[in-house]
Amino acid sequence: MKTQNISLLSKVLLLVVGLLFFASLQFPMWQIELEAPQYPEGLILRLHADKIGGDVEIINGLNHYIGMKTLHTEDFFEFQILTYIVIFFGVFALAAMVIAKRKLVIALLISLISFVVLAGIDFYRWNYEYGHNLDPNAAIKVPGMAYQPPVIGYKQLLNFGAYSVPDVGGWILIIAGTLIFIVVIMETKLKGKFRKQNKVNIASLWLLLGLSFSSCNNTDAQDINIHKDRCNFCEMTIADSRFGAEVITKKGRAYKFDDLICLLDYISENSTNDLKSYFVNDYSEKNVLIDATQAFFVESSTLKTPMRGNIAAFKSKIDAQLFADKVDSYVFRWADLLKK
């Protein structure tokens, strides 16, 4: 390298980075959204740089029943220093622009990565302590149950689905971090390596993006716990695995049902735009969920299902036809089932 000075384009990007750090303070950094049948509109906890916002009072009221400590901004030292940390990175980016030295930009990136790792560890610790340190005298106690929200992504907590993702301020910081990374690539030997392996890097980037997207939007079926899980429509405990069903929302939350008729009623009362995938139990096997859109169905009064839907699902067309012949019925598919 003949010079250690950064290019004009890098300076412009660092100026944008500095402004993004300051702008992020005007918005919430993170959000934890809670969804449950009794709160269809959802409850949101918003974490700003200097305070906790959102539906704090309602969530604190719910936490009281299960023995979780109530949430108050003054109980967290992080809210006293986070604003200054973000301002520090903003000033750091502007200083790197003015001084225009590559080593300073690399130091900025390393410092930001270190902060993100430490923040992630601290957030996990915060969630763990609040989810596990429960009041033994709480009104609602479930043996062995903890209520630790996910650091990122989706997690089922009793009848609540917790969805933890960056909020507007967090996304702004992610953009700022990405721009710093781009500047480092542009100003170091990594730039040449990226050019030589351009096709491989593009393919790898798309692969990583795809994996990240799929991990945050889980569509896999979740096991139905017989005699423990409750139907999300009729509220009855699911006692017979042969007729269980499930839907997964686009956010990854699972709604479970004790009868196909409850699944159909749920679909009819809710927007299918929010639903990602559908599962039904294979009548031929014990507690095995299969893709409902690929299943074969048979309706018969001899089935005696929990809510009198009297419909069974089969993975195999042959098994479905044999059962249909036995009960003097016929085989139909998912599209036909939705019309019932």
How would you characterize this protein structure?
The chain is elongated. The strands form three sheets. The protein has a five-stranded antiparallel sheet with strand order 3-2-1-5-4. Residues 205-209 and 211-218 have low confidence and may be disordered. Helix 3 packs antiparallel against helix 4 (102-132). With 340 residues, it is an alpha+beta fold. A hairpin with a 7-residue loop joins strand 8 and strand 9. It folds into two domains: 8-216; 241-338, no CATH class. It contains ten helices and twelve strands. It has helices spanning 8-24, 56-66, 78-99, 102-132, 168-187, 190-196, 198-216, 260-269, 317-326, 334-338, and strands at residues 30-36, 39-47, 52-54, 153-157, 160-166, 245-249, 254-257, 275-281, 289-291, 296-299, 311-314, 331-332. It is 45% helix and 18% strand. The relative contact order is 0.10.
Largest sheet: 5 strands, antiparallel
Which whole number gives the mean pLDDT? 86
Separate helix tally: 10
* Order of helix and strand elements from N to C terminus: HEEEHHHEEHHHEEHEEEEHEH
How many beta-strand segments? 12
End-to-end separation in angstroms reads 72 Å
Could you list the spans in which at least 5 consecutive residues all have pLDDT below 50?
Answer: 205-209, 211-218
Order of strands across the widest beta sheet?
3-2-1-5-4
**Helix fraction by DSSP (H/I, runs of at least 4):** 40-55%
